[in-house]
Amino acid sequence: MTRMRQFSIVSLRDLLVASGPTLLAVITVAVLAYLWVDPAPPRRLTMATGQFNSAYEGFGRQYVAALGRDEIALTLAPSLGSHDNLQRLIDGKADIAFVQSGSTEVGQGAPPRDTTGLVSLGSLFTEPVWLFLREGARVTQLVDLKGKRINLGPEGTGVPRLFRQVLDANGIEPGDLRIGALENTPATMELLAGRIDGLVFSSAPEAPLIQMLLQTPGIKLFNFTQADAYTRRLPFLTHVVLPRGIVDLGRDIPAQDYHLIAPTATLVAREDLHPALVGLLVKSAGEIHGKAGWFQQQGQFPSPKYTEIPVAVEAARYYRDGPPFMQRYMRFWLANLFERLWVVAVALAALLIPLSKIVPPIYVWRVRSRVYRWYGDLRKVEQELEATAPEGRDAAREGLMQRLDEIEESVNHISIPLAYAEELYRLRSHINFVRERVRGTIDQHGKSVGWAG
Predict the structure, then answer these.
(1) From CA 406, how far away is CA 388, in angstroms rounded?
(2) Could you report the per-residue pLDDT of 361-371, keeping only the tens digit for each?
(3) What CA–CA distance (Å, rounded) separates 335 from 326?
(4) Average predicted confidence (pLDDT) for the chain
(5) Which of 35, 96, 97, 199 could in theory staple to 48 by disulfide, Cβ–Cβ 3.0 to 4.6 A?
(6) pLDDT tens for residues 43-97?
(7) Containing domain of residue 284, as a range?
């Protein structure tokens, strides 16, 4: 093994020493570029959803499953609803949340809520205003609600503020009704027990309570026959139609078309959400909300439209161009790794190109220095010979010859790559040259003097 090292083509030790600082610098810069320029996406997110048995809660579970396939742990944080969700985003208690259109409006004459630092990832679905009434309530127009016991839910749901705007459009003061603030499930129990006259939801039709009430005898749905007028008065609302028989064709439920007014649910995130996760969330939204439904066509949602909060740049790019190129063919984390590595590649190229011109000369200098260092000892022998008076040279030759033998012995043990063997043999010939000078057989120019000591 020793002989193989002595006659190797390249000296690995010298190569490592010469290139070590360069490699260390390259690795350090690459790691810093990888971490600082575009840090890896977090693997945990928090989503503010809604009340128990609400559509927000159901959709939240679907997002947990969708993100779980890409090893993103999504924690669901139950809430009262849209207004509560918006406040949690503003306070930094949630990363993403469902927010209803119109939630940024505080009230008539008041400035909108400050949503600085929040971005929209797109609208997801319409949330019709469902006004369920007992059949005995005898309500055909909203003005007939005066004096009735109507549950609007807690303030954090957004429904109280929304329905007050609807009442105001009809010239009805909130004090004209006996308004309740129960959450959805207990309010439904109160309605079925006959202790209240009606309740208001604003939810997607997938909510279990909506599905149940639409099929419950003795409970009727209010028909907003003036829906178009509401959308003109309240621009964040849209007019949707619940088609006849959509709930149960066989039993013809409902038995007529119902006109409803509907805000739009939006997926809102904090502005500092990692850009890669924005695309992943929009992709998940397409899988969850992109199918045809009671109030939407195939592919209508998710959409960058119908949102009051500015759409994130990455989300707008996804809607325009589709998923990033690598994510079309690779899993999320692998694609994200390659998308981030281009920064590292640029950093490496910026360092390797100039450093590649420095390492070879350093390597050559280290290898040749093993040979050249002995020329200093040879020069000392010659200088000592020249400094000795002619009459004393015979006595000095023995010591100088011994030193030359020691130098030659050391040189014979030098490990040097074959590519530089010529330097080694040249050194050995020069040792012999000095030895002959010491013997007195040649002069300093290599010419024979005709005698030997």
Answers:
(1) 21
(2) 777 777 788 78
(3) 5
(4) 86
(5) 97
(6) 999 999 999 888 999 999 999 999 999 999 999 999 999 999 999 999 999 999 9
(7) 44-125+268-323
Position 144 in a domain: yes
pLDDT tens digits, one per residue of 215-259: 999 999 999 999 999 999 998 899 999 999 999 999 999 999 999
Q: What is the pLDDT of residue 395?
A: 81
Task: Give residues with Cβ within 8 angstroms of 284, minimum separation 6.
Answer: 63, 66, 67
Inside any domain, residue 329: no
User: Quick check: is 446 in a domain?
Assistant: no
* Cα 411-413-418 angle, rounded to 5 deg: 90
257 with 163, same domain: the answer is yes
Residue 44 burial class via C-beta count within 10 angstroms: exposed 0-12, middle 13-18, buried 19 and up: exposed
Phi and psi (nearest 5°) for 143? -65, -20
Q: Among candidates 367, 359, 363, 372, which has minimal Cα distance to 418?
A: 367
Sheet holding 129-134, edge to edge: 178-180, 149-151, 198-202, 129-134, 219-221
User: What pTM did the predictor assign?
Assistant: 0.68
Q: Which residue has the higher pLDDT, 392 or 194?
A: 194
Strand 238-242 to strand 73-77: parallel, antiparallel, or no bridges (unpaired)?
Answer: unpaired
Among the candidates 247, 262, 277, a domain finishes at: 262
Instruction: Give the total number of structural domains in the chain.
Output: 4
Residue 330 domain-assigned (yes or no) = no
Is 217 found in the same domain as 300?
Answer: no
